[in-house]
Structure formats: structure tokens, C-alpha cells
Amino acid sequence: MINVDCEYKIKEDIEFIIESEKTTKLELSKKTGISRVTLDEISKNGMTTDSVYEKFYSYVYNSNYRINSVKEELIKEKYQDVLFHGSKNGLSTITVNGSRNSCDFGNGFYLGETYNQALSFVCENDKSSVYSFRYSLDNLKICRFDCSMEWMLAICYHRGTLGTFSNDKQVQNILEKINNADVIIAPIADNKMFYVMAQFTEGEINADVALHSLSASKLGFQYIFKTDKALSKLIPIEKYYLCIPERDECKKLLIERGFEIDTKLKLAKREFKTGLYIEEIFNEKI
Questions:
Q1: Are 282 and 165 in contact (CB under 8 A)?
Q2: In 3D, which of 81, 213, 211 has the Cα closest to residue 153?
Q3: For 192-224, b where at least 16 C-beta lie within 10 A, e where not — what string?
Q4: What is the structure's pLDDT at 205?
Q5: Considering the entire predicted model, what is its pTM?
Q6: By C-alpha distance, which of 173, 164, 151 is closest to 217?
């Protein structure tokens, strides 16, 4: 278990906006609807209420400052090895048992390569936030997947759709690699992608159609820290506030991405008609 002692850096962000806009606290108060007294209090203790966070960061976002995304670029330049985690209700501690068993690779702490990846998984939640972490993979056992049959079967197993195929030796060999690893590195699979995988496990589409459809996801890779040894390699950096305008914009982009996956699935069904179905897969070597 590790502690996550991060708060929003609103004090520094207010100073940045005042400097960038060449304005004053009084003018900023009028623009944001936050009282001058409250702005002074933030300058002293660096914290405030949820409603004030929303007013300030909504003003920042609507003024075309993509402050969170720019911070991502800067911390990557500073630390190089940085990952992001989206939390629905905030973090105080992290354990390897914090996720659901039905997540892509079972229990573990899940992170993504980019800020937008993490945002996309929690943008529907009002109290969500994103965290950044420095990390190291030194002296850890790593299990890597690409967009492959093994990756798809591993996710289908953990999400409970393989049925009687779960006990197949090929599946068990994949699970052994996962269970022996400290960290899993694999393509991200959200619910839209899992819909495609479920069609494969139900025998509605073949493996080639599924994998070519899934390659349209563009979500990048996820890192799952599955052991305490792996967690010890994480260092929290910052907590990012997700204002309503930013979350709404993310929701729109996810809808567009969903249309893209649907289109590729339809085209893949026309193009890849001779691929193996799930019953045939288990008669072949992965």
C-alpha cells in the first residue's frame, strides 16, 4: 500500500492565470464569480470548496487554457516516466486489491500513458479526478501484450465471457504469465471495445474481424501494477481537477470514437470473412 498525498494545485494555477492574463485578483474575482476574500484564503492555504474549484477551473477551460494537458507535457519532459490514473471519487491510498476482479487483468492498480486516457474513464462521474505518477520498472517482472489473440482472451477471461473455454490449457498458460508478473503492459480495452470482444466469444464474429475492429481504439497502453513490489515504484505527482466543460468535451470525443469503432467493425465483417471463430481457435495454437 502507498499513500497518495495530493491536492489540487489551485493556488499555483491562480497565480499562473493572473500572470498569463496580466490581471489582478479583483478582476479575476469578477470574471470567475469567486470572492476576493476566497481568493486570498486560497493564497494562504492552497485549498477551497468544490464549488470554488468548479468556478475557477471552468473559467480556465472556457478561456481556452488546457492547463491539465499542458501540465502533462511538462511533467513528462521533467520526469520522462509518467503514468496517469482516473479516480471516480479521489484517492488517499493505493493497494493491489483496489480494483474489481472483473477488470481487464484482474486485481491491480490501473494506469494509462496519457492524461486523456485517464480522463476518458472517469468523465461521466461528477467527483472524478486524475492523478499523475512517476514510475520505474527496474527489477520488476513485466508481462507485455499487443493487440493480439492472447490479449483478447486474457480480457475475456477476466471479464467472465469465455465460459467453458476458461479451463482450456491455452487460456491457463496466458493466466500463468499474468499471475507471475509484477506489472502488465497491454492495450487499453474500454466497454466499447469489450462489446466487440463479447461478439467474438459469443460466436457472432471471427477473430480477424474482432482484432481489426479493436485496432481502431487508439486508447494506447495500460499499465497494471499487480504486486506490492510494483506499487513501491510509484511516486504521486499531482491531482487534477476535472471541470464540467472539460468532462463534457471528453464525452463528445468518446461518442465520436464509438462511431469509428462501429464503422470499422462493419467494414471488417465485409473484409475478413475467413477468420477463425472461437470454437476453432481452441483447436489451433495461439
A1: yes
A2: 211
A3: bbbebbbbbbeeebbbbbbbbbbebbebebbbb
A4: 87
A5: 0.88
A6: 151
